[in-house]
Amino acid sequence: MKGKTFIRKFTPESYIQSYKSLIRLGVPVLITQLGVIVVNFADTMMVGAYGLNELAASAFVNSLFVVVIVMLMGFAGGVTPLIGALYGRGEHEEGGRMLRGALQVNIFMSVAFTFIMAILYFHLDKFGQDEELLPIAREYYLIILFTLIPMSVFNCFQQMANGTTDTATPMWIILFSDVLNIIGNYLLIFGKLGCPELGLTGAGISTLIARTAGAVIIVAVVGKRKRYRQYWEALINSGAGEKRRMKVWTTSYPLMIQSGVECGLWAFGAIVCGWFGKIQLAAYQVMNTIAQLGFMTYMGFGWATSIRVANFMGVNDYAGIRKITNAGLHLVLTLATLASIIFFFFTEPLVHLFTPEEEVALAALPLVAPLILYQYCDGAQLTFVNALRGTSEVKPLLWISIISYIVVGIPFLLLLACGFHLEAEGVYFSFSGALTMATILLVVAFRRVLKKKEVGI
């Protein structure tokens, strides 16, 4: 057996301490995600108020980019368990060298995805979308393309901060960027205070400015704060080495693929909704924006769980890992219940926030029932994905995501949407099936990983 294994008795008192530690870490991330939700709400509301074509075009472009964005976020998530374990052992200089390697690999991946999406730009007409949307979509697409690299830099530094249990610093930076984004939307979408009226293009420019500002600020903060002095000095003055880069890659790429495959199912859902016309596509965009109220809040405590699991892994505290994962699940399921209550009682006003088009609102309302249905499985799978991420044993995520979201998810989606003619409603119902399968497989994989760790395999 490797190292010392801690054995603890789980008591209500010990769970209270676990809840406190997760809340301390998770609340800043939760506030950050709520800030992201506010921006997405504002984007959808402002673009929807500007025009139906702009709303549908943004839904199409965002459905393509969200896969890449989530994959890059997942890839950066591999930094957290590596830095978190080193932080748990007090190896801060090694953490800085690991950060350097992580930054190099993350920038490389963002450049690669920028190149891939640039090629895809020339094939936007192959997705079966309404012809009148393409001119609007193309301009917006090109602007969002240039946000990938600065966003990747921010993600890497954010996950390093998270790994050292500092979730507050990224929170403040993201909130500042969110405010910048909303102000930019107001000025550039509608042409206020002497700015040009650019519509959806203005929303893209605003996003580019906000994401670039976030990257610049977080690098400057890490470079100046005393807390990160050892990390910064090692980052600037030490080489990463091929071994560290490979370690980052090995930990990160399964997370990237898992995130991309999962998100890809939702992106495919947008494309399928587009087959039924721009009303169905716009309704899907509205409901996805509302759905973030749940998902983004779960993500905050999922990340907190990952951080604490990584810290416990650094000292081989497997009992602590189980307890903190259970505590994280309790908190997430509580949040899922609160989100479901909001969705159930405030459906109509929420939908009408994002579109003045009555046809879009009527198409969106039937999506609420399947949205509520998948909240609990979504929260549970997010908890166990992050717990597994915290252990650094993430290869099981590859086959779990392929089985859940490709083998099960895509056929089920097509069956309900096209075979049973449920259209967007069928798309949303299909997500529950995929998430249920993912949750079951993740629980099994997590238990197997911990069992192997405990016996020193």
Helix vs. strand class: mainly alpha
Distance between the termini: 8 Å
Low-confidence stretches: 1-8
Residues in helices, as a percent range: over 70%
Query: How would you sum up the major sheet?
Result: none
Task: Tell me the Rg in angstroms.
Answer: 22 Å
Approximate strand percentage: under 5%
Could you report the average pLDDT, rounded to the nearest whole number?
85
> What is the molecular shape?
globular
Q: State the helix count.
A: 18
The SSE string, one letter per element, is: HHHHHHHHHHHHHHHHHH
Please report the total strand number as a whole number. Answer: 0
Description:
With 457 residues, the chain is mainly alpha-helical. The longest helix has 39 residues, at 12-50. It has helices at residues 12-50, 52-76, 79-88, 92-121, 134-145, 148-163, 168-190, 200-224, 229-237, 241-275, 278-314, 318-345, 347-354, 358-364, 368-373, 375-390, 396-419, 423-454. It has 18 helices and no strands. The N and C termini lie close together (8 Å).
